[in-house]
Structures are given as C-alpha cells and as structure tokens.
C-alpha cells in the first residue's frame, strides 16, 4: 500500500492508497523504518509510488524497497542501536501486473535472484545485523512454497541475519538456520479489512540479538511471536487489534484453539520460537 492521499484519491481494494497521516501514526507508536516494496507499490503507477515517498520524506520516516532515484536506492538503510549497526533491504515478487519504465526501476525492488544476494552481501559487509524483507508467497497457504524456501536460503547464504516474509495474509512458521540467522515466512495480517477468520489472525514478532561490541558477533537471543486478532469491523470504525488470547472477550469463541494452533504451526521447522500470550 502507498500513502499518497495528499495528491491522489484515497482507495481500498484493489488499488490501495492511504492518507499520508498514517505515517504520523506510525511515528507516534515508535516505528523507525517502513517497507514500501509490496505487490501494491505500483497500484497508482510511478506517480503514486513517488508521492508516497515524498510523504515519508516529509515526515523524516526511513523507507526501504521503493526509492525516488537510483542515487537514493544506493544509499544503505542503516539504524544504529546499542552499538550495533542494523541494515535493511526489501523486495517484492511482483506488482500485480503494473509496470514502470526501465529508467524508473528504482521505484520497485523486484525479487531478482541474480541481484538481491549481491545487494544483501554488500549491506552485510557494512553492518553488524542485516534484516531483509520479502513480499512473496502464496495467499492463504499456511506453509511456504518451495520458491519461498529457496529465496530465504539465498538471503541467508548472502549474509542476512533475519528474513521477514509477508503477503500470504496468514501467518507462516519460523525457521532457524543457526545461532545468528533465522526468519519467518509470513507475519500475516496485522490491520486488515478481510472478513475470513484466518485473515483476521496476525502477529507481532520480537527478534532480539545479543551483540558483542568487541568481537562484533551477534547471536539470536530471543524469537517470540504474539498472535493477534482483528476484532470488530473496520467498515464501521469498530475494528481494533487485540491479543488473540483475549479473543473470547471480543466474540471469538475458539480463541484458545486458534492460539494452540499458532504454537503448533510456528514450530513446524524449529522449536527455537516462543509463542506467547503477550509481549512484555
């Protein structure tokens, strides 16, 4: 989704466009960087992508995955935290058939297996922790497709420490490669107007690294996921995101069963992840 509401009409499915004020809300809750490489990045063409970037820049919000120029695309996205340099890259599998001219390729970072591993390696050489986001996968599937597994492995081999997946609209499991590299194939929906129960369930993920300032080594200290539930309806402004474990208080009769399914599914590939009722 883009945030180009200052210059283009606000719109929902299938060509999304949000008001630019949504960026203010993100900053208010502490968001430091946003991923703007999704299958909806080009819903309003180059104009929409560019206007959305200008709205982000106007609010001093760091962004990754769609850029205003080739020069902008070459600037590494790095945030320093507690002595560690954390770098970010993001890519999407497609743009729903929307296209841009070759000379505007900077507006959309495509998952290109010949290119993204080189970019990840280049960023990893400059950082202590490298985070990579992929907008890919089959919608509504609870397990990753073979091409997702391959894409994640390529990112791992190139030096990504954590790979965050999205697009399937349901939560897919974690994978833990070693003591410093892991990922989740899909975080699912967080705020969503979709009505099927599987699409009203999402997650908040906590990834914590222990970083040794002297040796520059980083190791995964904690992988946790809190399942969430989209209660109410966003069409009548009653929608809100709550902890799934509290779903019964919002009319979700099988909240505990859904929570137990999360515990089972998230550990399909690794038992290193904790599924918790709440994040402290």
From TrEMBL:
<dbReference type="Pfam" id="PF09587">
    <property type="entry name" value="PGA_cap"/>
</dbReference>
<feature type="domain" description="Capsule synthesis protein CapA">
    <location>
        <begin position="1"/>
        <end position="194"/>
    </location>
</feature>
<protein>
    <submittedName>
        <fullName>Bacterial capsule synthesis protein</fullName>
    </submittedName>
</protein>
<dbReference type="InterPro" id="IPR052169">
    <property type="entry name" value="CW_Biosynth-Accessory"/>
</dbReference>
<dbReference type="InterPro" id="IPR029052">
    <property type="entry name" value="Metallo-depent_PP-like"/>
</dbReference>
<comment type="similarity">
    <text>Belongs to the CapA family.</text>
</comment>
<dbReference type="InterPro" id="IPR019079">
    <property type="entry name" value="Capsule_synth_CapA"/>
</dbReference>
